[in-house]
Sequence to fold (221 residues):
Amino acid sequence: MKDSKIKYLPITVLILFYALSFNALKGQTAQEDSPAQYLLRSFTDSKVLMTSGRVENMKMNYNTLTETMVYLKDGDFYDITNSRLIDTIYLGDRKFIPEGKAFYEYLERADMPLFCQVKSILKPVGKDAGYGSVSHTSATTSYSHISSAGGNFNLKLPPDNTLNTTSIYWINKTSDFSTRQQFLKLFPDKSDELKKYIRKNRIKFDNTDDIIKVVDYCSGL
Fold:
C-alpha cells in the first residue's frame, strides 16, 4: 500500500503546497475505495466555489465522522479547515453548503429550503462475554489511539468497530427532524393534511427522496 500523508491546511494556502512539509501516516491511495466513514464510495471530481468567486477543482469526499470535507492531492489527504471562505462545494453532482465546520447537502429549492446533515459515531463492536452476553466496556480500548481531532479518522478505521450513521434534515437551517413524529411537530397546523399525504404516498423518513417529496408538499399547503 502506498504511503499517504495526512495534512491540515486551509484551502487559501494551496499555492504553498510544495513549500510545506508534514508528518506522514499510512493510508489508502486515491484509486482505492474510501473507508466507511466517507459519504461517497470514492473521492470524486469536485468544484469549490469560494466566496471571492474563484473556483478550485479537486478530488473530494465528505468524512461523516469528523464532519469535514477532505480532498486529495498527489495521494495526500487534506482537511478543509477554513470553511468561512467557501460559498458552495459541488461534490460530483451534489451541492454542499458550509455550516460551521460541517457541510450540509442542499436538497430542495422550494419555499422551504431543505438541507441534510450526515454524521457518524464510531462504536466498538461488543465482545463475547460468555453465556450469550456481550461486553462493550472491554472493546472501547480498541480505537482509543485514534486522534479525535481528525487526522487518523481520514484513514481506514480499525477492525472491531462499527459506524452509526444518521441523517438530520434541516428546514431553513433552523428546524431539524429525523423522524415522522419530529417532522409533524414542526407543522402542527398542517399535521392532519401531512399525515394523510404520508400515509397515502407511503413516505419513508429514512429515504431522502421521500423527505424531499413531503417537504415540497408541505411548502404548498
